[in-house]
Amino acid sequence: MDFQPIDAGLVPLVIAAVETVKKYVNKRWIPLLPWPFAFVACALAVLGQGWQGWPEFLARTLVETAKVAFASMGLYKIAKTTIFGQ
After folding, report:
1. Cα–Cα distances in Å, from 5 out to 2, 8, 63?
2. How many helices (H) and strands (E) does the chain have?
């Protein structure tokens, strides 16, 4: 399981979506916000690579979602603490 080029494009997309919606969400739920955006983006990316059947679609979507959501959460935390100094 390696980091693919599609992941590199989805991580900033998820971060931007979370930043846009964050001001409308209770602060308690902000750490979980990347998950639904990552799931939708990864599902569309997996579908864009071709239909392989439900089992492979679900497996690849869940794995990609975990990678993108955790990467976007970590990258956001690094940017927040180092660049913005918060």
Report:
1. 10, 5, 15
2. 3, 0
